[in-house]
Specification:
This protein has 395 residues and is an alpha+beta fold. It contains ten helices and 15 strands.
Length: 395
């Protein structure tokens, strides 16, 4: 499988660079979806559905006379101005594939090539569902991402397991990271406004000052993790926006705060939200008030132990046991979690660092990957699916 994947390397690079040069934001991936559908059609033997979750594509290979495994890739880009010097840099000003979704899409198309060959040669029983998902990075006006939309539209129906991978531009090429249990965090965003009467800067005693309230409220917010959350439980609060006032001699009547909450366990998630409410209520002790809204985001992602074991087994076969990175999970969020709530699933992190000492972090203008990871990723996905369909790994 790995040899066949390396034979596809030039095609995978071409696909990745084509998608990279034409990035599209969430629920706008019309060109990318057309490229995916056309490529699946050229591979042949795949039943294709377009317009799933608005701009997603789903392809089915095989039939229901056996188990079904889904493989997911996300397709959307980010609102970032690219700062690389590549000839295939973004031709869409202000939009960039700065997280590797172009690579994910190319690798899943590569896996489709490989699996089509294996079905033809070995007569595999069962079905592989190729899930090309829109809008992992953002939600629509109803607060729903592409992953949630796909689940709601039945993409996980009749699926027994789901797998995915994500490139990691900071993990050395040739290494992988796969773990059981929590693998991505639940994310919730809060937006609050501290309310006072405002007034003249020369007469602060005549009104209530939301800037003054800001100090104890921020102290209470940042004290949540230190004093309200069990120290062995992951939970993070970060304030990203503080905005208020327009003139040096005017005390504003409002100060705005926005931030993000990250957690694993549902209990900690609920506690964080409740404690944010309590922190904002401190404003009332200073003669003010507040407004607060919390936008619930993606749930925490859980790697099923069995499915993670399949990916680990295949990656070890291809790359050797020394290829595994055993770092602890971070608190980034991934809407693949919605699919893993429906069926057992797991996501593997694929090392893609270029290795020249430059840190090309995700979601930055210089993000980049070592394209040699593309055939490796395609092979891991395809081989895992084959072993599942052949019964060599099981739930």
């Amino acid at each position: 499988m790995l040899d066949r994947a390396h034979a596809l390397a030039n095609e995978l690079v071409r696909l990745r660079r084509d998608i990279h040069a034409h990035p599209e934001l969430g629920f706008q991936e019309t060109r990318t979806a057309a490229l995916v559908a056309d490529t699946l059609g050229e591979i042949g033997g795949i039943t294709i559905r377009t317009g799933v979750a608005r701009t997603g594509v789903v392809g089915d290979l095989g039939d229901a006379n056996g188990p079904t495994i889904a493989i997911r890739a996300d397709m959307d880009a980010l609102p970032i101005i690219e700062a690389t010097a590549h000839g295939f840099a973004s031709a869409n000003p202000g939009v960039m594939h700065a997280c590797g979704h172009d690579a994910h899409t190319a690798m899943l198309l590569g896996a489709a090539h490989l699996l089509r060959e294996r079905f033809a040669v070995e007569g595999l029983r069962g079905r592989v569902r190729f899930v090309f998902q829109p809008s992992e990075e953002a939600c629509d006006r109803e607060g729903k991402s592409g992953g949630l939309r796909m689940v709601e539209e039945g993409v996980m129906a009749e699926v027994d397991a789901v797998i995915a991978l994500h490139v990691d531009s900071m993990l050395p090429f040739g290494q992988v990271c796969i773990r059981s249990g929590w693998t991505s965090a639940a994310v919730d965003d809060f937006a609050g406004v501290l309310l006072g009467s405002g007034g003249h800067g020369a007469s602060p005693h005549e009104g209530s000052d939301p800037v003054f309230m800001l100090i104890p409220v921020l102290t209470a917010l940042y004290g949540i993790k230190a004093r309200r959350i069990d120290p062995v439980e992951p939970g993070i609060l970060s304030v990203g926006v503080v905005r208020g006032g327009q003139a040096t001699n005017v005390i504003p009547s409002e100060v705005e705060l926005q931030g993000t909450l990250r957690s694993y366990s549902p209990r900690v998630r609920e506690l964080l939200i409740a404690e944010v409410e309590r922190a904002f209520a401190v404003s009332r002790a200073y003669g003010g008030d507040y407004r607060l809204t919390v936008q619930h985001g993606y749930p925490a992602g859980w790697n099923d132990e069995r499915v993670a074991g399949w990916l680990e087994q295949v990656a070890g076969t291809f790359l050797g046991e020394r290829a595994f990175d055993h770092s602890a999970p971070g608190l980034g969020a991934e809407d693949f979690a919605y699919m893993c709530q429906q069926v057992p699933g797991a996501m593997l992190m694929l090392g893609a660092a270029i290795g020249d000492g430059v840190a090309r972090a995700h979601h930055t203008p210089i993000f980049d990957i070592d394209e040699r990871c593309l055939p490796i990723g395609a092979a891991i996905l395809a081989e895992t699916a084959v072993r599942f369909l052949k019964g060599e790994v099981a739930l």
